[in-house]
């Protein structure tokens, strides 16, 4: 029987206490694991402002799997979160958070068993933000074809391996037609390769309503980053809160599993921390690397312990971390023969995905974003072929035609479009855009950015303004 190695980052606050509990439980189960202990978080932050030494990242790359306790992010010191650093430096593109009702943990529902698959890199989390004017800030929501294909593919492969029956793509494509529309389009494209798994989709607001009224109807949910962030915490709440919520951050070759809660400095060192979330994360790790039977065996012992009312204080019980851990250990059944011999790991290589779509693009206009303090800016109606088609404020058309009864902020979008005498779009060059910008500059308009208006394979590649 070959040992497998897992990088262990115990973390800060209650991290070491709950990590030691997991180590003891794993030892008792007989699973052949070697823990490679590495540092991250407060203990190394003086020497490594990112909170993660290169040596730790190197070890995770080498051993491929890590279990991480919570780490403290100092406030007001400019330090980045360790989790964000790890996620970005290792391209951990999938955040997978199971939400399953636990026996003995009182919640409104008893039968929740769903998995959230959240895209972990893109969306508004690229952090591409700019102050546009005195009154307006902007954040770019970037949804990509490769990113969306990859997360959809991961969700379907995972569902197949874990025997899940249905995947719901969650989005807001009714409003974000192009960005969430692309996410949904990729999901539907990938779904065709998995006819055995039911695929449907639901708008995110409706999803939230249904999750808090009828969560049992969901199986696997796949979401873009921001909705995934919010909905995964909502789901943690459905099954007992962050104290019992596990999670995994998964990349092509590497995966890091960690509890969702933080380092709980208020109870650190008191021996009362609940190790359930980190244990469930460690079980998710076992499932990921293919030790499904061991996962179930330890899970049964945990469930039995909770069912018998042996719980830590946060769940309304009286057990210390040690007593709770001992109770789980006492209830672990012996391993079956061959249990450790045939791991079936889940691995999805992004190279497997042929995602790039070559599209013929054609530019026929430009949106110029302009600051104006004193109402709708009187920009030129025409420069070369470019004609002013409309001006919008916060997405609503305010010119030409009657001004709708809305507040105007100091941030206007002036849409210029080139058409020929038959009303067909006319291709324009960058030169014409530069000329327009020069005209605006000469007339002292303060423009802050532009967006080209293009057709992609003959289809309009931009959204219309409200009322356009
Ligand atoms: P927290 O999750 O650490 O604590 C919130 C409340 O839940 C506290 O009352 C705490 O005692 C309790 N709690 C959390 N986990 C528990 C457990 N296993 N057993 C019993 N009670 C538990 O959130 P907080 O206080 O906002 O953050 C503390 C530190 O943790 C911060 O520095 C924050 O940046 C960091 N943090 C780290 C995370 C990570 O490494 N994954 C995630 C969230 C926060």
Biggest sheet features: 10 strands, mixed
Mean pLDDT over the residues: 93
- The tally of helices reads 11
CATH superfamily of the largest domain: Isopropylmalate Dehydrogenase
Distance between the termini: 68 Å
Strand order, largest beta sheet: 2-1-3-12-11-4-5-10-8-9
How many distinct domains? Answer: 3
Outline type: elongated
Task: Provide the succession of SSEs.
Answer: EHEHEHEEEEHEHEHEHEEHHHEEEEEHEE
Q: From the 3D coordinates, which CATH architecture of the largest domain would you assign?
A: 3-Layer(aba) Sandwich
CATH topological fold name of the largest domain? Isopropylmalate Dehydrogenase
- Strand proportion: 15-25%
Helix content: 25-40%
CATH first level of the largest domain: Alpha Beta
Count the E strands: 19
Bound molecules: 1,4-dihydronicotinamide adenine dinucleotide
> What value does the Rg take, in angstroms?
26 Å
> Poorly predicted ranges (pLDDT <50, ≥5 residues)?
none
**What would you call the structural class?**
alpha/beta
């Amino acid at each position: 029987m070959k040992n497998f190695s897992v990088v262990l980052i115990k973390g800060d606050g209650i991290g070491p206490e709950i990590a030691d509990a997991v180590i003891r439980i794993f030892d008792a189960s007989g699973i052949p694991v070697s823990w490679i202990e590495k540092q991250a978080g407060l203990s190394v932050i003086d020497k490594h402002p990112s909170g993660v030494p290169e040596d730790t990242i190197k070890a995770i790359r080498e051993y491929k799997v890590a279990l991480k306790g919570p780490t403290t992010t100092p406030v007001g010191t400019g330090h980045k979160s360790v989790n964000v650093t790890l996620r970005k430096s290792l391209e951990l593109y999938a955040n997978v958070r199971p939400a399953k009702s636990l026996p003995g943990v009182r919640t409104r529902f008893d039968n929740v068993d769903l998995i959230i698959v959240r895209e972990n890199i893109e969306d508004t989390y690229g952090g591409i933000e700019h102050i546009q004017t005195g009154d307006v800030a902007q954040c770019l929501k970037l949804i990509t074809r490769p990113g969306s294909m990859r997360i959809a593919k991961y969700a379907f492969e995972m569902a197949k391996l874990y025997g899940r029956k249905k995947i719901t793509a969650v989005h807001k494509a009714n409003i974000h037609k192009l960005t969430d529309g692309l996410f949904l389009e990729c999901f539907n494209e990938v779904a065709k390769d998995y006819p055995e798994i039911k695929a449907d989709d639901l708008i995110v607001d409706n999803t939230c309503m249904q999750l808090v009224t009828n969560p049992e109807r969901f199986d696997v949910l796949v979401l873009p980053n921001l909705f995934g962030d919010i909905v995964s915490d909502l789901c943690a709440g459905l099954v007992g809160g962050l104290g019992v919520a596990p999670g995994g951050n998964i990349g092509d070759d590497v995966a890091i599993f960690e509890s969702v809660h933080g380092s709980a400095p208020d109870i650190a060192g008191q021996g009362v921390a609940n190790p359930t979330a980190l244990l469930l994360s460690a079980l998710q790790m076992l499932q990921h690397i293919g030790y499904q039977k061991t996962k179930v065996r330890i899970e049964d012992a945990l469930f039995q312990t909770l069912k018998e009312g042996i719980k830590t204080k946060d769940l309304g019980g009286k057990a210390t971390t040690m007593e709770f851990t001992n109770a789980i250990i006492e209830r672990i059944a012996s391993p079956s023969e061959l249990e450790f011999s045939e791991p079936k790991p889940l691995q999805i290589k992004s190279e497997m995905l042929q995602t790039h779509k070559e599209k013929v693009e054609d530019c026929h206009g430009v949106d110029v974003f302009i600051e104006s303090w004193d109402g709708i800016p009187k920009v030129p109606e025409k420069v070369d072929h470019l004609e002013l088609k409309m001006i919008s404020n916060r997405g609503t058309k305010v010119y030409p035609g009657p001004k709708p009864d809305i507040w105007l902020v100091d941030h206007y979008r002036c849409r210029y479009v080139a058409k020929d005498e038959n009303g067909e779009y006319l291709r324009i060059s960058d030169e014409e855009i530069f000329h327009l910008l020069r005209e605006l500059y000469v007339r002292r308009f303060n423009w802050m950015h532009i967006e080209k208006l293009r057709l992609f394979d003959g289809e309009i590649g931009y959204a219309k303004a409200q009322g356009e």
